[in-house]
Amino acid sequence: MKSMSWLYTSLAAVTLAGCAVGPDYVPSEPSASSAWHSELKEGLGDSPTDPNTLASWWKTFDDPQLSELIERAVVGNLDLKNAQARVRQVRAARGIARAGLFPSLNLSGSDNWSHSRGEMGTGETTELHSAGFDAGWELDLFGGTRRSVEAADADLQATQEELNDTLVSLLSEVALNYVEIRTYQSRLAAVQASLESQEQTYQLTEWQYQAQLSDELAVFQAKYNLESTRSQIPDLKAGLDAAMNSLAVLLGQQPGELHEALAAPSPVPVCAKEVAVGVPADVLRQRPDVRKAERELAAQTARIGVATADRYPKFSLTGSVGGQAMSLVSGTSATIGGGPQVTWAIFDGGAIRQNIEQQSALQEQYLIQYESAILNALKEVEDAITTYVNEHDKRRNLEAATDAARQAAELALYEYQAGLTDFNNVLEAQRSLLSFQNQLAQSDGTVTSNLIRLYKALGGGWTCLDS
Question: Residue 49 contacts by C-beta under 8 Å, 6 or more apart in sequence?
């Protein structure tokens, strides 16, 4: 018994101190250029991003209703709840992997009886009581179990980053839908204002025709211009309803439940004047999807070690203690047993070697996916910067065009009333004014939407679950 105890102690010490086979994962800092290729202007700067601002970027728009919708989405969104359940599942899987590092202990017991009767039976009842327990411990001499735990830890971290990435996408989608709603309301307001102006023009042409100051053609032209503008309203209302329904689903509510709360028109949220985007290296550290890809690579690297450990023998310690008695008051017979065991796959047709090759090829794929995630992250920021800056330029041009079209419409109507110009000039001016007003309202929403996409590309918002 002393020699067996010494053997157990020695094998346990080797297990704790032994090395783990397979490659050791060494994380590296992803390479990135020192500055953005796109020109930073319109309030964008390369100063370090403020963590607090990035964590709650929607507050920079100073829109209480948007902030409220964001908070409700964090609580009610179903995709986010599913991602949280996924984290709990993987955390439990990690616990299962860690359990392999410890011994197992099983307790068993039975209570059986038999009674004989009939011509050959003695009429006696026989009882048999037994109890015992057995223990086993597979010694992790070559680190296969430790590599499994290492992979499970990295899987859990990757799943947590997947949850963070889901949150980043959710917050941006809520904000984008909200901006879309406000944009539709602005476009509807522009059409309603144009309808009022065109209604007055239509009445004017009728009065002039009745007074024989103009022909009936102007009346029909004013009429179709008015009805053409009115025909835009159903499509805008349908788009507005669809945007509200999409936002309700993002909040985990049924379509239609937000219509009353968002019915009152409100302007598109104003963009922040100054936005710090940092440098490319900052973004790669902030983006959950990049960190998720890196953790998946770490997990797969550990799995190569798990596969490699199968090439080596497996040692385990077993022991059992048991006892039997014919009755509860009779004497008991006891048995004690135990000892080390070893198993070693001598020939498996190359299955272990092929599994190592398979896991190594998978690691290469995860490395490529990690590198791809880095490139896509940098691309998204570059694209977001470019579209945000260019939309600002477009909006300035549309604002100038809208002002000019408004003056042209007023002047054309004045000259028509004075008999100095043809009514076609009035029609053209009114149509142009409505078109530019519609484009300007859309551009207002696009500027804000592009800033939201920039915040998403920077990886903002995922830390709000920690607060």
Answer: 276, 277, 278, 282, 286, 458, 460
Tokens of 352: 């272990």
Go through the chain and tell me how many residues it has.
467
Query: For the segment 340-396, what is each residue's pLDDT rounded down to a tens digit?
Result: 888 888 888 889 999 999 999 999 999 999 999 999 999 999 999 999 999 999 999
Nearest CA to 286 out of 461, 162, 453 is that of: 461
Which two tokens mark 141?
A: 């001499």
- Taking the whole predicted model, whether its pTM rises above 0.70 is answered as yes
- Token couple for 446: 């696009």
Amino acid at the residue 17: A
**Would you give the distance in Å from CA 50 to the centre of its chain?**
22
As a whole number of angstroms, the distance between CA 438 and CA 371 comes to 42
Say which residues have a Cβ less than 8 Å from residue 298's Cβ, sequence separation at least 6: 25, 27, 150, 154, 157
Strand 104-115 to 125-139 pairing = antiparallel
Alpha carbons 432 and 411: distance in angstroms, whole number: 13
The two tokens of residue 92 are 């439990």
**Cα angle at 119 between 117 and 120, to 5 degrees?**
80
